């Protein structure tokens, strides 16, 4: 049973009176535990597709369903609940909050969702990314690879069924990037998280189940 279903999706943006076609009819399905890479040149539509897949934005036509919920049919409360319970997101530039400690960054999604024992769960997840001893550090006291591991802990702390990763190793050296890829593979295998990752790295085929190539808003 597919966890993420993208069906014949198009997306047009308006920019300075011009219509930009970012996606021109894309379909894909991702099952629990599957880890897919999305590759293709800058501007081919990878980030647009990830935003639709995470219910951060909506298709111009076609539909996206996450765990059998069609994103464009949900009201604001339904969307917030869907994002907070089912989806995790990681980015190239980590997007940690600089004034919060590592533990505070990781527990934030749980506080927003009103979950019980957020600190305990945050420490457990930090331990899973092998940063249990770094809970009280500030983000600026970490290396890039450590920052991305904190971001992964934050994305997984609420045990989402779907993890979306937009060029998560784009700012990291090869060795560190490979450690992050291994960690994502482990999330897919250990927790049955479905992962869709945009990447430029040819190394990703080592850890992913499938590579999807995009060109000009289409899967090729
Ligand atoms: N908010 C936006 N407004 C207008 N055009 C956009 C917007 N976001 C993306 N685009 C355009 O959509 C296309 C796909 O962009 P994007 O999904 O970011 O590609 P990628 O992540 O593969 O580099 C590009 O032509 C880009 O300029
Ligand atoms: Mg992008």
Write the layout of secondary structure elements.
Blueprint: E1 4-15, E2 18-30, E3 35-39, H1 46-53, E4 61-66, E5 69-70, H2 76-86, E6 87-91, H3 102-113, H4 118-128, H5 144-156, E7 162-166, H6 174-191, E8 194-198, E9 210-215, E10 218-219
Parallel strand pairs: 3-8, 3-9, 6-7, 7-8
Antiparallel strand pairs: 1-2, 1-4, 4-5, 9-10
Helix pairs in contact: 3-4, 3-5, 4-5, 5-6
Bound molecules: adenosine-5'-diphosphate (ADP) and magnesium ion (MG).
Magnesium ion (MG) binds at residues 46-47, 166, 198.
Q: How many DSSP H or I helices?
A: 6
How many separate structural domains? Answer: 1
Mean pLDDT comes to: 97
Shape designation: globular
> What's the CATH architecture name?
3-Layer(aba) Sandwich
For the biggest sheet, the summary is: 6 strands, mixed
N- to C-terminal separation? 24 Å
Hey, roughly how much beta strand do the residues contain? 25-35%
The tally of strands reads 10
In the predicted model, the low-confidence regions spanning at least 5 consecutive residues are: none
Helix content: 25-40%
In this entry the ligands are: adenosine-5'-diphosphate, magnesium ion
Biggest sheet: strands side by side, in what order? 6-7-8-3-9-10
Q: Looking at CATH, which topology would you report?
A: Rossmann fold
Description:
Helices cover 33% and strands 28% of the residues. It has 220 residues and is an alpha/beta fold. The protein has a single domain (33-58, 73-219), classed as P-loop containing nucleotide triphosphate hydrolases (Rossmann fold, 3-Layer(aba) Sandwich), CATH 3.40.50. The strands form 2 sheets. It has a 6-stranded mixed sheet, sandwiched between helices. β4 and β5 (69-70) form a beta hairpin. The radius of gyration is 17 Å and the shape is globular. The two termini are 24 Å apart. It binds adenosine-5'-diphosphate and magnesium ion (MG).
């Amino acid at each position: 049973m597919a966890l993420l279903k993208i069906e014949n999706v198009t997306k047009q943006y308006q920019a300075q009176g011009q219509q930009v076609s970012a996606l021109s009819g894309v379909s894909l399905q991702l099952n629990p535990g599957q880890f897919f890479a999305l590759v293709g040149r800058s501007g081919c539509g990878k980030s647009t597709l990830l935003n639709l897949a995470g219910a951060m934005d909506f298709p111009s036509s076609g539909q996206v369903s996450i765990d059998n919920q069609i994103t464009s049919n949900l009201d604001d409360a339904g969307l917030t609940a869907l994002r907070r319970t089912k989806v995790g997101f990681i980015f190239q530039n980590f997007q940690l909050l600089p004034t919060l400690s590592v533990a505070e960054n990781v527990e934030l999604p749980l506080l927003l969702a009103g979950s019980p024992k957020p600190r305990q769960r945050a420490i457990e997840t930090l331990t899973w990314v092998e940063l249990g001893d770094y809970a009280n550090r500030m983000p600026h006291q970490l290396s890039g690879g450590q920052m991305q591991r904190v971001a992964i802990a934050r994305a997984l702390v609420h045990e989402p069924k779907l993890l979306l990763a937009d060029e998560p190793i784009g700012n990291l050296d090869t060795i560190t990037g490979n450690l992050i890829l291994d960690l994502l593979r482990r999330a897919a295998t250990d927790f049955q998280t479905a992962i869709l990752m945009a990447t430029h790295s040819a190394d990703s085929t080592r850890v992913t189940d499938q590579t999807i190539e995009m060109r000009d808003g289409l899967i090729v």
